[in-house]
Amino acid sequence: MPTVQIGTFPVSEAFLSKPEIFKAPLDVIKTSDGHISSFYGSQVEDGKTGYFVSVWESYEHHQKLIGEPSYANLIEALKPAAAGKLDRNHFNVTGDADTALSSPAVEFVVFTLKADSSADKLVPLLEDLAKALNIATGAHPPCMWGQSIENKSKYLLIVGWDTVAAHWEAVKEGTDLHKIVVSITGQADLTIGHSHITKHKD
Fold this sequence. Notes:
Layout: E1 3-10, H1 13-17, H2 23-29, E2 35-42, E3 49-56, H3 59-66, H4 71-78, E4 87-92, H5 98-101, E5 105-113, H6 119-133, E6 144-147, E7 154-161, H7 164-170, H8 176-185, E8 188-195, E9 198-199
Antiparallel strand pairs: 1-3, 1-4, 2-3, 2-9, 5-7, 5-8, 6-7
């Protein structure tokens, strides 16, 4: 089962002026066993949050890379891009990840369970949300969602869109998607961001 890693971090001036700062370390990561693809970019809303997303054949493949002596050098090479700590989560997906991540605009959502909620209450709503997103106008299905491997109280969602505006149009008040999102807010706190991320290539 493929695993998606989402890393978020406060971006440095070096990254804002030269996003290609990721290229050299990603040239190394792409040769790692089990690596499928990597993407990077900054958040549309604040311009200060960076996204680093990598797709792996499995969680174990990425953990193997982290355990290698050379990994410390990779982290050092990435440090100039960040002005602070990298927050990282992994989640497993059931199929294609590249379609959504290669879209013109990518939506990233983190759902954090409320103290009085549970997975049994939230998961059916996320299933309904995913079904509705996959047929939404302007979406690039399939969307991806799953529970964070690191933090069981968090769930992550990635959706590809034609534009950021297309997302907000699809979930505006009065739509079925809006009703589902309102139900979800009763069970979890939401953090939403968008990015025009770049796929790392040769």
